[in-house]
Amino acid sequence: MPNFQNITTFKTNNIGEDLSAQATDFFASRRGTDLSRYVGVSLPGVPNLSRKRTLFNRSALVSTNALWKLGRGEFKTQIDYSFNRITAEAANVTTYFLNDGNRVVTEDRNGVDRSHSLSGKFIYELNQKTAFINNTLKTNIDWDDVRLGVTGSLSNNQTASLPDYYVGNDFKLIKRFNGKHLVTFISKNEWESLPQTLSVSINDGFMRQQVKDHAFYTNESAAYAFSVKCITISLEGGVKGYVRTMRSELPDMPEEIPGETTNVLNTNYFTVYATPKFEYWVRRVNFTLNAPVSFAHYTFDKALANRSEVYFSPSLSMNWKPNNRFEMSVSGGTGRSPMDLNMIQPGYVMTNYRSFRRGIDDFYNSSSQRVSGRLSYKHTRRGIFANAMVMQSWSHRPYTLAQQLYGDYVVYSYTDAESDGQMLMASGNIGKTLDFMRGSANINGSFSRNESHLISENTNVNSVGTSWSVGAKINGAPLRWFSFDYRFEWASSRMSMNGTNASWLGNMENELLLNIMPHRKWEWHISGEHYRNELTADQFKNVFLLDTKVIFKLNKRLELSASLSNIFNQRTYNYTTYNQLTSFESQRWLRGRELLISISLRK
Question: What's the pTM?
Fold first, then answer.
């Protein structure tokens, strides 16, 4: 109708499609409440592979959207409810690299995750020539129950209850004066509650972890901008407020691990900030200077001493565009920032059946620097496109991550010791259209090197992780009735600790899709995937996956199709990864051979 529109959908499946991901993600941006789960119990996932290969699910989604015209404005709503029941199974081998000999832990995991999510978004918007108003009220309620059974080095059963309650309101007003002057007012208010419960039955014993975490965040700001010839000056300023309480109890701590098992924390702050921005254009060069500065006052309700801090993080960038084909930019910045307040945690928290976390019992600041450069080129008439990027960053922290093993248990904490790190990242790709076969080709590559300092078993460790990858893509439609799409990638990584290098481990991926259309009413799709993962030096695991699908279009409204997936009936997938102090080898179970017949009717 002219003043009202609505669409309501219902979906359900058990074929490996995550319907909750199909709902519009209103909350993808980072929340100001900045809460994160301490409990880390989840079902095993599989990198690289599509979730249709690995997701054993029963899913449902109900979504309703409505729009009302209200004079010059409009009111929009969206409400979604989703349910997922997921099962997963995996076999893992974790190796801890220690000076006195590596420690190996084996696990066979089998679990069920039942998750519910209810979200809503309510928007009023008024858009006029000299003013724009938007108010968005959003809410999200999740409740997630996980049951995970583990056999191996330390057999156990884990049960986690992980609800999440969130509500937020965003208000934005943009007002234009005299054509060149723009004033923006923004108000953000958010509240979140993140209670967590983890119960573990192990060795005829029982542990129960309870965490109650609540936070309120507010940010009220205004921005003003104006332009004079080649110069644009803008200023944003405002105030932020944050109130958080966290309580946790772990009465049945393993006897091997000494330390406090209760946390009673209040981490609050009030911040006044300003962000001046200066832009200058000369010929085809654009210079931009950002100079954010803030004053913050922190209160901890006697858990720590209250304190006040000033932060300044300037950055400068230059962009050069001599013509419509070539563009180059360089940028750099430095700054001082506060630590994550979630790290203030003097007592232990159990994250899973054998891992415990203890944070910092003091407040610290860190500093960082970065430089980066980008190049891009495009020649549309010849169909050539290329770009490259490189970035180097440095970080300086007055605390260091520490790992300590107590028998079968591992504890992660932080020590009062300086820690420096640096990271180098580079990537590039070049592409060319292939007009003779109505397609294109692309070659890409990347490199990264991350150096960090940690403490393992009371010993300083310099950890360097290096990885690189190369890949290529080509697609085309050389015949009226035939098209194809092929992708190749090779990646390799290595971990070095105190100058001792582990072996390079490589992974190769091949994907091929063939589309055959012998008649306007018939389509035949054939897709294949090949994975070659190096589990240990010179020991490889190959996996071949093949699918096919036939489609018959009876008319414009009715379509019939039949698909057969995982024709070779591959049931497992193996891979190995490194992190800072461990290697992780895993075997994951896949969905087997499946036949799906579909009927689609469009009105």
Answer: 0.88
